# Entry
Amino acid sequence: MTDPGDSTAEAAMALLREHGPLHPAEWARLLVADGHGDLTVMEELAECIAHRRLGYLADGRSVALDSLLAGRVLTHRLTDVEIASGILAAHPDLTPLLPFDDHDPAAGGLRTLFRDLDDDVFDERGVRDPDWPADAALLLEPDTLADLQPGDLVALAFVDGVLRLTAVGSAPAAAPDLAVALADLVPMDRPEPLDGIIWQLMADDRALFAAPTTPIGDLITDAGYVCDGDDIAVAGFDFAADRGQSHLATVAAAHHLADDETDAVTAFISLIGVLERTPDNDRDRAVDAVMVSASDRFAGLARPNAARAAFGEAYATRRAGTDTLRLAAAVLRDRGPRRIAPTAHWLAGKAAELDGLTTEAERHYERALSVDPNWDEALAALARFASDRGDAVRAIGLLDRAAGGYYEPMYDLLQSFLPVDRPDLGRNDRCWCGSGRKYKACHLGKAEHPLEQRAGWLYQKAASFVQGIEWRPLLISLAQIRSAHDDDPFALYHALDDPLVADVVLFECGTFERFVAERGDLLPADELLLAQQWLLAERSVHEVEAVRPGEGLTLRDVRTGDRLEVTERTASRQLRVGDFFCARVVPVGTSMQIFGGIEPIEPGQRGRLIELLDSESTDPEELVEFLSARFAPPQLVTTDGHPMVACRAVFEVADTAGIWRGLSRRFGTADNDQWTWTEQGSVLGVLNLARDTEPWVLEVEAMNEPRFESLLDAVGAADPEGRLREQTRTPAAELIAQAEEKGVRPVHPIDPEDPEIAAVLDEHILRYEQQWLDEAIPALDGHTPRECAADPTRRDELTRLLNSFPQQERPGAMSPHRLREALGL
# Structure
């Protein structure tokens, strides 16, 4: 997809505004004619362009929404709850006018809310119904609707590029009849996206919704149609069944199900529904009805992929409880086709595992194999139990019988723990270990590895446990946070394998404690004791004090002051003395090791991270978000501390005399039709007047949004009738990324080496450095740099801290050289 800040994307949107809605092929040809590239490239752009002002009509054309919606007015009839709370239920009446996100200037300061995401706001406004609103809502100032009555109409209009909400003071215009138009757009057998349909109606009739009229929801109902979520369909359409079919098609594709397997999953879900909804005294009769009508349909569950799909749908999607799963497994075992008996035993085992009943689960998996010795899911489950016991031979043997078992994450690790026979010893010879027993009775076919070597195996056992379906939502949630700054389409997939994500789910989310409680009886005694020790180990911030490449590290725990000798072969070749990182260092026999990844920490981050680690209120999401911030694009700030954003607006001047007088009074006399807003020697904004056009054009620029808003207000006061023609707000990080992207020239390039930008950055950083000299620094045990410089016993610690800073001088970065001079080092 294209970057919405890309100059070609902006040119494409300009053409869309000029020519109106276009099919992709038409749009591409116009781009070629405008000199933007060859037809193949432009066709791809027209299909894939991503822009916040781009929409799609029901007929497949693309449309510039700011042009399409200009001048449109939609209405909504108020309720008691809305008036009291200052929150409008926007769906379906107002949502076609709400394609702009909250940060878009076109939103006019309106904020869109959703249940679950914004429950705190609804609670704050006194909305007690957890099911209201069912969809999008608009947050207004608390008393905005106080003077209105239930049943009054409010109007949301898109005027001069901004959304505005007003009361409808006069009688609304006659209600348009949408029945004929909707009949052409909405098929009888499927739903269509509501926004695309309404936008299509607007594109086909410029007079539609040009004045306040009956709310869209009422118009749709009167025409014989109904809305459900984001969709519209003919009245009486079964949305639930349609979405169920769509979901089932997705499940079938994900699990590679054949038609009979898909049918079997459907039958199983029906059985789950009957078991959950039917009272105990009627359950047998209801189950009889299902088994009589659908007994043959269950046969497809004999294949492991169908069994996995059925279990996932029942537990993860339908939220079936473990008691229901046990009942369903018993029904399939006793009354289903014999060929699905392994599936029935496996389902019972999964239910037992979810309840932490390890022995019962293992018994069910063994029964599955007694019916079918090569049933893949039972083999894989029993291999995990064997691995937990430390029996690599049995685990490998089970995986070798399962289709694709060698792809299991534990397979390669288990290979390293297989016993190595001694060809120089006969079966009846004395064992090599000195026990005095025969080799065949002592160590033949057995392996003994020290605990230090088995620690990685123990961690892998826990990592395998955390991949269970009950922990999947946690993994996905944290992986989404971890990958938030990565544009790679597979970023989330990769983040699911990220060491930090799995380790936080294990420890901060309590999964490792569950692992020890539920699988501890399976672990070798010394591994169980080690696992219990790991439960006491906390994630912390560590300073590297010594490096033994390929062997290990000497670390100082910044939080406790403890010094640790760590065995670490890979990281010891990459880390330097003075580096800081966040990790969980755990005991392993007589040594220490690191599991769960190593997160590098910048000097300025240490204090905040230590606060997070010390606080009992820090949640896992907050910790992962903080440790993942290093992947975010760099954020530059202006001297007043606001994010650096290149803001530009263009006005058409209506009052030529007023604009000159007003701006001159506010910003001083113009220099060649340019006003410069300065305060305390810093340039905060620039206004340029072009008088060689008709009407005159005023261009306004600032480097952060608060300054920009002040400039817009000043222009509005000087020329109330002036028309805002366009405006852009582009974060500095985006501009830098544009400059670095090959072949793309940024519209407003920002170069940190540019003298003006460098001056802004240096002014900010110099002020920060002066503050830093007298701040309590956690890495210095809470002492200030000045205190440590004056204390010979702490000076070495301060020197190590300064050495850990990037030593290359660059704009916007703290300078170790300046800091050493200021501290007299």
